[in-house]
Task: structure prediction
Amino acid sequence: MGAPPARIDASAHQGAAAHLSRAQKAAIIVRFLMNEGAEVPLTELPEGLQARLTKQMGSMRYVDRGTLADVVAEFARELEGMGLTFPRGVAGALSALDGRISPQTAARLRKEAGVRQYGDPWEFVQRTAPADLVPIIESESAEVAAVILSKLDVARAGDLLGLLSGPVARRITYAISQTGAVSPDAVDRIGLALAAQLQDMPETAFAEGAVDRVGAILNYSAAAIRDKVLEGLEETDHDFAALVRKAIFTFVHLPERVKPTDIPRILREVDQPILVTALAGAQGDELAQAAEFLLSNMSRRMAETLREEIAERDRVRPRDAEAAQTEVVNAVRRLEAAGEIALIRPEEEESPDG
Result:
């Protein structure tokens, strides 16, 4: 048998790294981790430390195996002795406590701490609803708006573009072709300014706008009450009433808001007796059209079975029919909220300028 392989004696290299500064040791550890294929999130460090680390790594050439072992062992001992870590600064604490403290307190602390955080301001912009970005986009130059649109992920940018008027959207999309020479510093300053504007927006007590809230209430109201309320709104504020009508989604809106290919998935969410009641009680032109839309986009066998049950069904009371039809609509809303289907947006009135 041969001699056992030689083993590095840690004690032999004890103090081999004593002459190194903490910056040099940090550079060695980072380089070691990178060589091992580890992801090192250096972007979370303050910019000053990132620059210092980069310069330090650039000034170093060679580290022997004994010194490397000594630095790694010292680093491991520090990690083992570490019991708990806290996020860096108020910004990090706010991220850690997100959803656990009130939005009002979080907003006040962000304002007191300043907009500049250790993270990227564009991450804050990415989390902002596209509708909240619209007034800011419309008030900015096409070039700045093009930078904002370019920094968003493509899905969110597409949603935002769809909320803008045609001429504004065209100007911004053309301006994107002019952003090739924009410097990273300029993009950073735009992100900071945008984050500041978003944080300075006044907080509201309700997450949804008045149109959506009224529309949601009327969705669950009886048809007679809904019609009376809309008539009253027409007399008081015609424009507001028109927006509310677009926000309302009831059984009669199924043909214009739901894709025919989604009907089988929706109907699996509705018990058959409820579906029969909803279809049998669909009296009147609009309701009958909605019922036929459902029957025409399900399997032929299921449609024939339902038509037979509807024909045998006694007259359905309007109240029961409306409750069953609301259940069908609720199934649509649940699937939309879960992301399993996507509703067709109601056509928006064309703006006067095109």
